[in-house]
Amino acid sequence: LACNLLLSFCPSREAMVTEGIIPTLSVLCTHSNPQIQLNAIWALMNCSREASDVIVKQIRTSVSLEHIIMLLQHQQNEDLIMKCLGLLMNLTQSMEESDSIMDEHGVGLIQ
After folding, report:
1. In this predicted structure, what is the pLDDT of residue 11?
2. Which residue, 2, 3, 91, 102, is the most exposed by fewest CB within 10 angstroms?
3. If DSSP states are collapsed to H, E and C, what string results for 39-98?
């Protein structure tokens, strides 16, 4: 449900972000259950799509990029991999963000 409520055109998005959904989803990204991880990453991916710089920055500071990269490297769930890639794509829409992530994590992403 949170995945759909965080889409850019949904009126509840701003309220959910203001009420602290991003840190909660960030914690759920590390849950041991892959379905919970998938839904948390999916919700963050939707939240980061067409998002303001403030929201993107909040996601970048809340979500461990190392964990997302680890999921990409060690996960067999194709849906989870696709949502992780979508989240990374949304977080790197600006050249500055893309350069920052590549400077910090480029080797891990390429491997």
Report:
1. 87
2. 102
3. HHHHHHHHHHCCCCHHHHHHHHHHCCHHHHHHHHHHCCCHHHHHHHHHHHHHHCCCHHHH
pLDDT band, residue 19 (cuts 50/70/90): very high
Rounded to 5 degrees, what angle do the CA atoms 47, 58, 111 make? 80
What tokens does 59 get? 């996601």
Cα four-point dihedral sign 58, 59, 63, 64: negative
Amino acid occupying residue 49: R
Distance between CA 69 and CA 53 in Å, rounded?
22
Return the number of other C-beta atoms located less than 10 Å from residue 88's C-beta.
19
| 8 Å CB contact between 39 and 76 | no
pLDDT tens by residue, 55-69: 988 998 998 888 888
